[in-house]
């Protein structure tokens, strides 16, 4: 199923503009509908001291946030008009939805595009982590670096460990971006090259879908798997990295560190995460 519906988190700042630009290029390639979304939760002052705020102060704070969201919506419309297809784009302010949940909203879209730190209205309290969206929505999420010059990915590196989340990334890649020209499947481990097992013939699977593919193994040695993986992407000139998110628990990765968290921190190319 080709890409037809894209949700892009847009806050109007410089970083989120790269995500919108990326989404609009995908819109042009796949004739997809783009929905811009902004959410502005209550300010920390409002959340922590609501009981002590006068009605006038609370109204003023809400009004300022609403005005900011309106400005962001106008900027979204301007950028779409200058690059994309305005007739195939919409903008929504999720603050107006009583039961707000970006992951829940994302379930009705083929793909979510956002920057690493998509803080709507440019504020810490409104930050939404892309890995959390991927984890809870069941939809693939592409994170775009803040300063990335967008292009539609032609050569994708697929991080493969043979596990469920990696298989989900493989399927999502083919389903939402069928125009991918080349996929390099890379396995990274701190041990000798593993022997192929049943279900690991990913190259043949991709070939049946008309995608040029090859398999490469990298031994991380004493280096972190994240660094080995990202260096490989730079080595082969990949346009995007596709990977499964949180094959281990999110709690353990947040506490002890892990590939998903480190990729979000260090990647300098778009990353598609699936769970």
Major sheet details:
10 strands, mixed
Nearest-angstrom radius of gyration? 20 Å
CATH topology of the largest domain: Rossmann fold
Strand order of the largest sheet: 3-2-1-4-7-12-11-8-9-10
Strand content: 15-25%
CATH classification class of the largest domain = Alpha Beta
Poorly predicted runs are 118-126, 251-257
Mean pLDDT: 80
Beginning-to-end CA distance, first to last residue: 18 Å
Walkthrough of the structure:
There is one protein chain. The protein starts with a strand and ends with a strand. Mean pLDDT is 80; it is low at 118-126 and 251-257. The strands form two sheets. A ten-stranded mixed sheet has the order 3-2-1-4-7-12-11-8-9-10, sandwiched between helices. α1 (14-30) links the parallel β1 (5-9) and β2. It is α/β, with parallel strands linked by helices and 275 residues long. The protein contains ten helices and twelve strands. α1 crosses α3 (55-83) and α8 crosses α10 (259-266). It has helices at 14-30, 44-49, 55-83, 102-106, 130-137, 164-176, 202-208, 225-236, 250-256, 259-266, and strands at residues 5-9, 33-38, 89-93, 111-115, 118-119, 127-128, 141-144, 155-159, 182-189, 212-219, 240-244, 271-274. It folds into two domains: 5-144, HUPs (Rossmann fold, 3-Layer(aba) Sandwich), CATH 3.40.50.620; 155-274, HUPs (Rossmann fold, 3-Layer(aba) Sandwich), CATH 3.40.50. It is globular. It is 41% helix and 21% strand.
